[in-house]
Amino acid sequence: MTTQTTTAAPPAAATGKDRAHATAHGTGVGRPGFGWALPATVFFALFAIAPLIMVAVLSFTRWGGLGSPEFVGLDNWSRIFGDPVMIKSIWLSLLLTALGVAIQTPLSILLGVWAAGYQRNRAVLSAIYFVPLLLSSTAVSVLWRALLDPNFGVPAELTWLFGDGNLFGKQATAIGVLAFVSTWQFTPFHTLIYQGAARAIPNVLYQAAEIDGAGRYRQFFHITLPQLRNAIITSTILMVVGGLTTFETVLILTQGGPGTDTTISAYYMYQKAFKGFDFGAGSAIALVLVVAATIISLIMVRLSGYDKMRSSMEGL
Asked: Which of 199, 243, 201 is nearest to 98 (CA)?
C-alpha cells in the first residue's frame, strides 16, 4: 500500500495590487493611509497655515489694532527694508544664530557621546545636566537677569573679573550674555539628540576598529562623527530656526539694548506691532523671518544631502 504525501505549494507572492488592497483594508503591512495623518493635517492647517496666510495678508495693510485694516500695497515692505534698524536686526539675528551653532554643536556632540556611554554615575549627572531643558525660556531669562544684575548680581561682587559689572551696557558683552544663556538652556536638548544617535551606532564598528589598533580618538573622528552626520544636520537646522525666531531672551535680558545693539528681528517685530501698534509692518517682519528660516533650512537640507537619506524603517 502506497501512501501519498501531498505538500502544499507555497503561496504565490502578492502582487502590488493585492498589497495595496490589503493595506487599504487594514489587513496587510504597508504605508499608513491618509486617514492616519488627517488629524495632524487639520491641526497644522488651522494653527499654522491659516495664521500664516492671515499674517501675509495683514503685511499689505495698515492696521493699529482697532477698526478695519486699510490696504496699502507694498508700503510696509518698502518701509521695513528702508529702515536701518531692520537691516541691523537681520545681521544681529544671523550673528546670534551663528554663535549658537558654533558653540552649541561641539558641546552637544561631546556631551551626547559621553552620555551615551556606560560611565559610573552617568545617569545621575545626565539628569542634573538636563534640568535647564525643563524650564521655559522666560524662567531661564528671569533667572539669569537676576544673577547678572549689575547692582546685586554676581558681576557686582566680582568686579575684578567683570569690571563695572554692567554686562548689558555694551554691545559685545550683551551679545555674549545672550549667546551664553541660549547655550546654557538649549545645549541639553541637542545633547539628547546626539545621545540617541550615538547609541544607535553599531558596536561592531568599534570592535573592528579596536582589532585594527585604532585608539579612542581615531574611533571618535573616523566612526562616531561620520555616523552622527544626519543628527548633526537635524540639530543644526533646529538651531538655525530657533535662533532666527528667538524672542523671550532678548525681551527679558536686554530689551534690545543698549540702544538697538541687540534688537534682533523678532524683537523688532514685537516693537513695531505691540509697542508701535503698527501691525502691518510687524506682520511683514514676521513673514520675512518665516521665509528666511524656511529658505535657509531648505538650502541646508539640499546641500547636505539630507533629503536623500533612506531608512529601512521608512514608511512604517
From this structure: 243
The answer to whether residue 32 sits within a structural domain is no
Q: Which of 297, 296, 285 lies closest to 247, judged by CA? A: 285
What CATH number corresponds to the domain at position 255? 1.10.3720.10
The residues pairing with 70 across neighbouring beta strands, listed in sequence order, are 62
The C-alpha atoms of residue 106 and residue 110 are separated, in whole angstroms, by: 6
Quick one: cell of 168? 548689558
What is the structure's pLDDT at 33? 80
Residues 132, 183, 89, 151, CA torsion sign? positive
**pLDDT tens column, 43-84:** 999 999 999 999 999 999 999 988 999 999 999 999 999 999
Cell of 191: 545633547
Each residue of 105-140: pLDDT tens digit? 999 999 999 988 887 777 788 888 888 888 999 999
CA angle 63, 67, 72 (to 5 degrees): 35
The answer to whether 144 touches 181, Cβ cutoff 8 Å, is yes
Query: Does residue 67 belong to any structural domain of this protein?
Result: yes
Residue 53 sits at the vertex; the CA angle it makes with 51 and 55, to the nearest 5 degrees, is 70
pLDDT in tens, 131-161: 888 899 999 999 999 999 999 999 988 888 8
Question: Which amino acid, one-letter code, is at 27?
Answer: T
**pLDDT tens per residue, range 272-302:** 999 999 999 999 999 999 999 889 888 888 8
Q: Which three cell numbers stand for residue 92?
A: 544681529
Residues spanned by the domain of 250: 61-307
Tell me how far apart the terminal alpha carbons of the chain are, to the nearest angstrom: 53
